[in-house]
Design goal:
mainly beta, six-stranded antiparallel beta barrel
């Protein structure tokens, strides 16, 4: 599972060899797997994409997020964390941000540049994650996934997270 706006073709940089028809996933062990876009199910109104892989991965457990939960997210900020060398994507380092849930909204809707959320449960967290966290998990202190990072609002210093109840 990742954010729809991550997999939307408009998010890809043109690259002759890839033809914008596939994604490269990194397994928890760092192994690369090519996944073609026809293996993806897009749900634009949730900003979620479901990806069917060729490997069996263990899944993270989910839990409902609660107001004032201490939380953290992990990601790969694009400004300085990834780059292409030839045909190979290199990830330098995973980053971690921490905060708490400051608001929970039912039936929330928002449109943004390359995605939208329509009438879904979202969590509002008190920090603005950087570009590169989108589509990643939001964890609570019990190490359970409580949401999927979606829309960043740096002006208000908040991030909109699609609740795990929407998965």
């Amino acid at each position: 599972i990742t954010a729809h706006h991550i997999c939307d073709e408009s998010s890809f940089s043109p690259f002759k060899i890839w033809n914008n028809d596939r994604l490269i996933l990194l397994s928890p062990k760092g192994e690369k797997e090519e996944v073609y876009l026809n293996q993806c199910t897009f749900t634009k109104d949730k900003d979620i994409t479901y990806i069917k892989t060729n490997n069996n991965y263990s899944f993270l457990e989910t839990e409902d997020g609660l107001l004032n939960d201490e939380i953290y997210s992990v990601g790969y900020p694009t400004k300085d964390q990834s780059f292409l060398i030839g045909n190979d994507l290199i990830i330098k380092e995973q980053k971690k941000d921490q905060g708490k849930i400051v608001e929970i909204k039912e039936n929330y809707s928002v449109e943004f540049s390359n995605g939208n959320i329509k009438d879904k449960k979202v969590l509002i967290i008190n920090y603005s994650a950087e570009e590169g966290y989108s589509g990643g998990p939001l964890f609570n202190k019990n190490e359970k996934v409580i949401g999927l990072m979606s829309n960043i609002n740096p002006t208000k210093k908040i991030t909109i997270v699609v609740s795990s109840k929407e998965f």
